[in-house]
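Lecture notes, continued. The same structure-token format from the folding unit now serves as the input rather than the output. Read the line below as a description of shape only.
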């Protein structure tokens, strides 16, 4: 039977970073679920005050910290109207009230606060009422992982017990999300309308060190999917204030062959050199000792979020997964790892198209978890330079030309990545699709893929050789944002014009990965590249149904193929090369095996060992 909770994972995406308005609470230490209840409740106190001044869209109110008010809270604005008079006794029963808008709290003093109007029905004025509704808050708890359902249930029960909240049953949440295909904020708004919700809270729960759980809660207003705030805390199970079952590192084996999965599930090797199919459609791969412990971690991108796995004797173990964005449109373009800041733990570098702009972000294992440590405008990649080690290079982004200017080198200085001098490259070579290789000459050679998928060798930026063979790569293809008149048409609400502009979007294909490594301990690098081959079929990925991996060495006049891995059963999407002690290397390839017209494509990791024969 298919797992509805897993279907939910495929439908719901959380913001991987908070918008500018978010006031992060940092990582707190909680010892019971009551601490989480108090944290949520603090955003919905029963508050009522009056507007004391109006300056355009900025208001001041007579409520503040002493009333439990926080920045980011939304207050409704009301105005008293006519008296309500009993028709027989003429006794005044009260006054009519008229809602005039909503305002967000921007700054809080002890006894006062400043608000910014976000919804205006009528012009506010001094003396109007500002309040948070005293009625119960309708809230839904949406778990992003299913390995600690008892915590979600416990939190729901205790929220309900406060009398301030009405919590939507988890079964209704799962049933609602089962067939949803939205991948943006409309999912929250749709859920809010369907169940008359005030708030949607997404929960992510991960095992951490010493029996603790890392819990992240993101709270959204249900009507417009605006982020209220993020609460991140460690729940200390060892405190004995909560009684839960022991944390289990893996899920039990799942015999469901539907193609879905549970986080943490074991995937044992099915054949020598290959893993069980990955439980998601991985597109990019990077490998490194991310925690500095001597154990390799595998970083996968499914195109919109990262997954970090470790291989153990029992099989694959997922250690961390990035949460997606409800709001942002994200597409990963490139993935690398490298210890650029020199602390012994490689950073993860992700270049992504986010809301039609290209940015790169950096993640590192710190404090027992993977965290974002920096953001860099434009494109980046890690590049190895013989004699100098690895470095970071990047290039600016322009919506018209896509790549702008020349690639530049980055250094780590004073706790940040600092852009430096330009990197001199041949005119036809861009940021991606090339490598430096030590061929035994005084200066390293540059080997690049050209637009015809041929290898070109450069010395001092002059081309000296071009391969007759072609090495087709998959690469990442992305739509360039529309500009000028095309962008104006995109904003037009008429569907015929929207269909027209979407037909003519220009696409950019980033070149695939090339690596160089001294596999044979000769002091000279071999160039390692993937070669996708096959007969094009309509249902096959980009027209390829099998692949090869090739290692080429420099003979003095040309690159000659030294070894080949043939008959790889699918398309090589990405690959990594890991040097082995004593010589040789492990080729780690991310392979997509086409499923044909009636079956789903399968993605797996395939591993091949090279020898050191001369």
């Amino acid at each position: 039977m298919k797992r509805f909770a897993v279907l939910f994972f495929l439908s719901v995406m959380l913001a991987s970073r908070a918008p500018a308005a978010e006031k992060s609470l940092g990582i707190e230490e909680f010892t019971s679920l009551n601490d989480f209840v108090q944290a949520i409740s603090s955003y919905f106190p029963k508050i009522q005050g009056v507007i004391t001044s109006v300056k355009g869209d900025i208001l001041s109110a007579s409520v503040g910290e002493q009333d439990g008010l926080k920045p980011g809270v939304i207050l409704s604005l009301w105005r008293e109207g006519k008296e309500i008079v009993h028709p027989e006794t003429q006794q005044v029963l009260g006054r009519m009230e008229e809602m005039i808008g909503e305002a967000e709290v921007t700054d809080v003093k002890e006894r006062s606060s400043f608000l910014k109007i976000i919804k205006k029905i009528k012009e506010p004025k001094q003396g109007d009422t500002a309040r948070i509704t005293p009625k119960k808050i309708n809230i839904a708890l949406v778990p992003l992982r299913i390995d600690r359902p008892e915590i979600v249930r416990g939190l729901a029960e205790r929220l309900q017990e406060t009398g301030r909240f009405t919590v939507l049953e988890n079964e209704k949440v799962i049933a609602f999300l089962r067939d949803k295909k939205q991948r943006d904020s409309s999912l929250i708004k749709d859920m809010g309308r369907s169940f008359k919700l005030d708030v949607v809270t997404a929960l992510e729960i991960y095992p951490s060190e010493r029996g603790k759980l890392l819990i992240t809660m993101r709270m959204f207003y249900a009507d417009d999917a605006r982020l209220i705030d993020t609460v991140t805390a460690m729940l200390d199970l060892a405190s004995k204030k909560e009684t839960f079952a022991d944390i289990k590192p893996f899920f039990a084996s799942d015999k469901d062959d539907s193609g879905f999965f549970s986080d943490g599930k074991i995937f044992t090797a099915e054949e020598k050199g290959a893993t069980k199919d990955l439980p998601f459609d991985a597109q990019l791969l990077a490998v490194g000792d991310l925690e500095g412990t001597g154990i390799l971690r595998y970083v996968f991108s499914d195109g919109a979020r990262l997954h970090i796995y470790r291989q153990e004797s029992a099989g694959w173990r997922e250690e961390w997964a990035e949460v997606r964005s409800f709001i942002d449109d994200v597409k990963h373009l490139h993935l690398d790892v490298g210890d650029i800041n020199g602390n012994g733990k490689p950073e993860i570098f992700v270049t992504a198209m986010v809301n039609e702009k290209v940015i790169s972000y950096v993640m590192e294992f710190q404090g027992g978890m993977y965290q974002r440590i920096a953001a860099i405008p434009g494109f980046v990649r890690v590049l190895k330079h013989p004699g100098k080690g690895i470095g970071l290079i990047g290039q600016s982004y322009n919506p018209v030309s896509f790549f702008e200017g020349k690639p530049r080198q980055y250094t780590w200085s004073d706790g940040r990545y600092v852009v430096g001098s330009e990197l001199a490259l041949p005119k036809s070579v861009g940021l991606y699709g090339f490598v430096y290789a030590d061929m035994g000459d005084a200066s390293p050679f540059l080997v690049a893929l050209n637009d015809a998928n041929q290898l070109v060798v450069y010395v001092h930026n002059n081309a000296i050789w071009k391969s007759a063979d072609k090495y087709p790569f998959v690469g990442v293809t992305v739509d360039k944002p529309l500009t000028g008149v095309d962008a104006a048409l995109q904003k037009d609400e008429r569907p015929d014009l929207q269909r027209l502009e979407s037909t003519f979007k220009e696409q950019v294909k980033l070149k695939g990965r090339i690596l160089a490594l001294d596999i044979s301990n000769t002091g000279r690098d071999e160039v390692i590249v993937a070669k996708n081959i096959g007969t094009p079929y309509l249902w096959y990925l980009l027209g390829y149904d099998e692949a090869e991996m090739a290692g080429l060495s420099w003979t003095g006049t040309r690159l000659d193929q030294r070894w080949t891995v043939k008959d790889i059963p699918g398309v090589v999407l990405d690959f990594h090369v890991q040097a082995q002690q004593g010589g040789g290397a492990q080729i780690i390839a991310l392979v997509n095996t086409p499923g044909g017209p009636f079956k789903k494509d399968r993605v797996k990791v395939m591993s091949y060992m090279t020898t050191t024969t001369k």
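Point for the exam: The chain is about 10% helix and 45% strand.
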